[in-house]
Amino acid sequence: MTEAAPTPLVEPRDGIPDVVITERRLVEAADALAAGTGPVAVDAERASGYRYGQAAYLVQLRREGAGSWLIDPAAVPDLSPVDEALRGVEWVLHAASQDLACLADVGMRPTRLFDTELGARLAGLAKVGLGSVVEELLGLTLAKEHSAVDWSTRPLPQDWLRYAALDVEVLVDLRDEIARLLEEQGKLEWAEQEFAALVAAPPAPARVDPWRRTSGTHKLRTRRQLAMLRELWNSRDALARQRDVSPGRVLPDAAMISAVTGNPRTLDELVVLPGFTGPAARRHGKRWLEALARGRHVAEDELPLQSLPSDAPPPPRAWPDRDADAAARLTFARAAIAELSERLAIPVENLMTPDTVRRVLWDPPSPDDLEDRLAVLRARPWQVELLAPILRDALGQLAKAPVTEEPEASDA
Prior knowledge:
- By secondary structure, the chain is α/β, with parallel strands linked by helices.
- The chain has helices spanning 23-35, 80-85, 96-105, 116-122, 130-138, 158-169, 171-184, 188-200, 223-243, 247-250, 253-262, 267-270, 279-283, 285-296, 319-322, 324-344, 348-351, 354-362, 370-376, 381-395; strands at residues 7-9, 19-20, 37-46, 56-64, 67-71, 90-93, 112-115, 140-142.
- It folds into three domains: 7-200, 2-Layer Sandwich (Nucleotidyltransferase, domain 5), CATH 3.30.420; 210-302, HRDC domain (DNA polymerase, domain 1, Orthogonal Bundle); 316-395, Orthogonal Bundle (DNA polymerase, domain 1), CATH 1.10.150.
- The protein has 20 helices and eight strands.
- A hairpin with a 2-residue loop joins strand 4 (56-64) and strand 5 (67-71).
- Helix 5 packs across helix 7 (171-184) and helix 19 packs across helix 20.
- The longest helix is centred in the middle third of the chain and has 21 residues, at 223-243.
- It comes from Angustibacter luteus.
- Pfam families: DNA_pol_A_exo1, DNA_pol_A_exoN, HRDC.
- Residues 222-302 form the HRDC domain.
C-alpha cells in the first residue's frame, strides 16, 4: 500500500493576522492569550547574518481560543504584558534554546515549556527539524523558504508573515504527538526534566575573548598575530555595532585572517588581499590598517596567550599519552554509552554531554561521590540513573599493560 503524500500547509486557518505595532494592540493580544486555553505555541524570528546581535524582530504566538498573534518587538519592545498573561502556561517551542535569550530580552520568560525539537530527539526521531517532524508526525509540509531572510525588513512582506504564522499553526498539535510517543516509550518524565532544566538555566555568561571564535584562527602561529587579530576583531565589532550590521557583513572572518597573515602596511598592500578587493575595503581601509598597527605594537607582556587556560580535560586523543588509565576508562564508557544510545534510540549527547563524561573520567570522584559530582555538573536525575552505573564500571577500568615474562635464571 502506497503511503499518502503529506499535505502542504499553505494558509493559516484564521488567515494572516495583522502585526501588533501599538501598545493598545499589545494589551489586546495579552488579554486574548490570557483568555485562551491549553499550551501556547511560541516562536521568534531574528535577523541573524544581517543585524548586529540576536534580537527578535517578530514574535509569533498561538493559543486555543485566542488565535494567532504576530508582534513586532521593534515597534513595541516591552512584551511583559504578554509574559504576565502567560504566567504558569506551558510554552511550546521548537529548539527553545535558540529563542529563549531573544525572548527574555523583550520581557518574555516561560515558567513551563515543551521543546518539540528536544522531545523529538528523546523520542528517537531520525530528523528533528520542524519541517521534518511536522511531516512525519502530522502528515503536513511546511514551507521553509523564508527561514533565513532579513526579518528586520519593514514592512514585512505578506509571504513572510504567512510563513511566520504557519510556524505556530500546528506546534501544539505536534507537542501532543511527541508527548504521546514519549509516554509510550517511558521517556516523558525524562523529557520533562530536560524542559525544566531549560527553564531554570541561568543566562549564558559573556564569552571570554570572543575574537578567538574567528574562523581560521588556527592558521595564526604567533601571539603577535593573535594580538593583531584581536585589534582587528574589536575594530570590526565596534563598527558593526554602530551600524547595526552583522560583523561578517562588515568584514568576513576570512578577510581578517588574510590581513593578519599578509601583514599589510599600506592601503595598496591591503586591497590586493583576499576579502579586501571591493569598494568597502578602501572606504574602511585606514581603520583596518590602524587596527593591525595597534596589534603590532602591543607590549610583549600584554600579548594574548596562544590558548586560554581551561579546567576542561585535555582532548581525548591526548589521553593515552597523558593518562593511560583515564584513556581506558573513556574507551570503556564510550562503548557502553553507545550501546545504551542505540538501545534507547536517544543520541549519545542527549544521554549525557560528552564534556560531563570526560570530566568525571579524567578526574574521577570516589565511588560514593559519583552521583553528587554528576549533579554538580548539571546532569539531570534521569541521566544520573542511567549513566552512573556505566561510569562507575568505567572508573574501575585500568589500562592493561602488556605482561612480559621474566627470563629464567641461568644455572651457569
